[in-house]
Write a structure and sequence with these properties.
Layout lengths: L18 H4 L7 H10 L2 E6 L2 H4 L12 E2 L2 E2 H4 L2 H6 L1 H17 L4 H13 L4 E6 L5 H5 L4 E3 L2 E8 L5 E3 L41 E5 L8 H13 L2 E5 L8 H10 L3 E6 L11 E4 L2 H8 L3
Parallel strand pairs: 1-4, 1-9, 4-5, 9-10, 10-11
Antiparallel strand pairs: 2-3, 6-7, 6-8
Bound molecules: nicotinamide-adenine-dinucleotide and zinc ion (ZN).
């Protein structure tokens, strides 16, 4: 299986090929949405960086997408880690600090509350592209983290995945990671960066994150596809819908006949193909949409 994390700027074909959906009139009618929600049996909530924006975690698009002089997405690559594990670890140390200081917002909480209330009578799955752990901290249980988690590490040799909440994750990263663009390059020797706990291994650790250009974990992808392939309602929350493979999930569900509702502060390339569109910060729109 070779599904890679890519941003196909030049190939939005998947999200524009739904004549059946295009024929439907799009609605922003909240009471109609609530009727659909009430009768739905299997609900997928697909979230992206936008849901955490109100918790103070910047998205990659827009002003928040830079760390020092680097575009954040340029550091989230295997090539960047190979060139400078020190620089990439500083970047992730910074992201871990931001995420650990952040709190789940009203959007995360509304989703978790809905699952707690209806999770026994409906199948509710949260599929997130986010790596900040905020859905889990809000209380979401049936959660698929497509792109990994900032608070997990993976050994570059034996592949062991471990949850690590230490801050800093190693002594050498204390006081590092400042995002200021005037901060000079990174020079932490490799042996001072996080290493595998196994005595027989001791290789360099990396963040357990699916970087741009890498394959998604096969089992994680299978779980997500299974949920998408049977849901009757899909909420697309705070995602630009241009990072694959997540970008194809909601159009796949819509093409199968599932109802798709998008929650975003601005329209995305996929908006015209969805049944409902609710414009605004999802910390405001979701609590309304998911309340009785
Ligand atoms: N919090 C995180 O874990 C985090 C943060 C940045 C990037 N990323 C990663 O970067 C990639 C970026 O893809 P993406 O599509 O998730 O994010 P993105 O940065 O491409 O897009 C964010 C989307 O959220 C919308 N948005 C911003 N604020 C919002 C709000 N308050 N309410 C509703 N919508 C809002 C924007 O209009 C935009 O469409 C993903 O792979 C993700 O793993 C993760
Ligand atoms: Zn190891």
């Amino acid at each position: 299986m070779c599904i890679r994390l890519i941003t196909p700027i030049s190939r939005p074909t998947v999200i524009c090929s739904f004549p059946r959906i295009m024929a439907l009139r799009q609605s922003s009618d909240m009471s109609k949405f609530k009727e659909v929600l009430k009768s739905a049996k299997e609900i997928v909530i697909l979230s992206g960086a936008g849901i955490s924006a109100e918790s103070g975690i910047p998205t990659f698009r827009g002003a928040g997408g830079f760390w020092r002089k680097f575009q954040a997405s340029a550091l989230a690559t295997p090539g960047a880690f190979k060139t400078s594990p020190s620089l990439v670890w500083e970047f992730y140390h910074y992201r871990r600090e931001v995420a650990s200081k952040a709190e789940p917002n009203a959007g995360h909480k509304a989703i978790a509350k809905y699952e707690a209330k209806y999770g026994k009578i409906k199948k509710i799955t949260v599929i997130t592209q986010n790596v900040d752990g905020l859905h889990g901290r809000a209380g979401s249980k049936n959660l698929i983290e497509l792109h990994g988690n900032l608070f997990k590490t993976r050994c570059t040799k034996c592949n062991e995945v471990v949850t690590n909440l230490n801050n800093p994750i190693c002594e050498a990263l204390a006081g590092r990671g400042a995002p200021d663009e005037n901060v000079a390059g990174s020079d932490i020797p490799e042996q001072a960066l996080p290493h595998c706990r196994r005595h027989s291994c001791r290789a360099l650790l990396r963040p357990h994150i699916v970087w741009f250009g890498e394959n998604l974990d096969y089992e994680v992808l299978q779980r997500a596809e299974a949920a998408i392939s049977t849901c009757d309602l899909c909420l697309v929350v705070g995602t630009s819908s241009i990072v694959y493979p997540a970008a194809m999930f909601a159009p796949q569900a819509a093409d199968r006949g599932a109802i798709v509702a998008e929650f975003n502060i601005e329209p995305t390339p996929a908006t015209p193909n969805f049944h409902f569109y609710f414009q605004g910060p999802c910390g405001t729109t979701l609590p309304v949409a998911l309340s009785d």
